[in-house]
Known about the structure:
This protein has three domains: 2-74, Uridine Diphospho-n-acetylenolpyruvylglucosamine Reductase, domain 2, CATH 3.30.43.10; 79-227, Uridine Diphospho-n-acetylenolpyruvylglucosamine Reductase, domain 3, CATH 3.30.465.10; 245-338, Uridine Diphospho-n-acetylenolpyruvylglucosamine Reductase, domain 1, CATH 3.90.78.10. 22% of the residues lie in helices and 26% in strands. It has seven helices and 22 strands. The strands form seven sheets. Strands 3, 4, 5, 7 and 8 form a five-stranded mixed beta sheet that branches. Strands 9-10-15-13-14 form a five-stranded antiparallel beta sheet, covered by helices on one side. A three-stranded antiparallel beta sheet has the order 16-18-17. A hairpin with a 5-residue loop joins strand 1 and strand 2. The longest helix has 19 residues, at 310-328.
Amino acid sequence: MTSFDSGQVVEARTQSIANSLALxxxxxxxxxxxxxxxxxxxxxxxxxxxxxxxxxxxxxxxxPERIVQPCLQLGSQDVVFETIDSQNVRVRxxxxxxxxxxxxxxVGQGLRGLENLSWIPGTVGAAPVQNIGAYGVELSDVLEExxxxxxxxxxxxxxxxxECHFAYRDSIFKQQAGRFVILTVTLRLSLQRPFNxxxxxxxxxxxQERLSVGMVRDKVIQVRQAKLPDPGRIPNVGSFFKNxxxxxxxxxxxxxxxxxxxxxxxxxxxVKLAAGWLIDQAGWKGTRLARAGVHERQALVLTNLGKAxxxxxxxxxxxxxxxxxxxxxxxxxxxxxxxxx
Length: 341
Ligand SMILES: Cc1cc2nc3c(=O)[nH]c(=O)nc-3n(C[C@H](O)[C@H](O)[C@H](O)COP(=O)(O)OP(=O)(O)OC[C@H]3O[C@@H](n4cnc5c(N)ncnc54)[C@H](O)[C@@H]3O)c2cc1C
């Protein structure tokens, strides 16, 4: 138990950790800080010999049956809106808030910038870690700064957009895992910015007259609900593998062998491939191995078929990786974090 001058007490508990893959998991020591002040006070006098493993909603984690490392969960939920000028608004949100509640609140105020990121599970604090993205928009497109506790400096500090080193599903928070605890995220949204309607099924909205930000959010939710299995019914962590990026020459040779292969050209003679297509074409859709399976409609989604453990999920993932290596000579990278026991 750790108590502070303010009278706040943060107590570590042994408890089971809910996660979107429904894997059985118990944390030996889970600290829960109810607000940002309590989190900072706790981190300033962190009572454990090792840094905490920060958990959000655990929708991007493959958890072991037991986590020995102390865990920290943030309960802070506040949102502050600050008008910059007639068109732009700064929004500062606490790490413990659910990401989609923030999107809903911003869209409700007519603010644009987050609508394509609707319905992504998880918390605000986890969003910068993998620079969440969907339908051509990434968090880094609207992020201004992040307030963190930095264990290397043993203090809180604000990190600018540039300092976050954002890339596709990547950031300094992922590269230097364990160093930072994200406390608040500040975004710059607008009442006017043009919508991004260039990707996937939301393209149809480009034809729509008098389009509102709420209409874009509704469409994104509708498309996502139709496409992605609900973790509440079919436990999953969303996309299980990153889309691989290969040199142009390799992409051209692959296309000769596999006509129809989905490819997206990137700057610098690089080509992004669709991991889901590769897995689907290799015949994995709807298959199962022990208690883990590949979703019958989404080859990129691995599911817990009931009572699966981390080992079952990782064995299926390894079998898929091996088959993709043999068929295409491509290394698939697992997107969610694998937590050590
Ligand atoms: C059905 C489904 C669909 C999904 N769709 C998408 C999608 O379209 N786009 C996308 O990008 N992702 C998607 N995801 C993945 C997931 O929603 C995101 O990665 C989300 O940001 C995870 O949030 P979380 O709170 O659950 O984080 P967790 O899974 O709890 O943690 C993820 C990582 O972030 C770290 N972390 C969490 N909070 C903090 C903090 N406050 N400070 C420091 N580190 C922290 C953890 O240590 C861990 O390394 C999907 C997942 C599911 C299940």
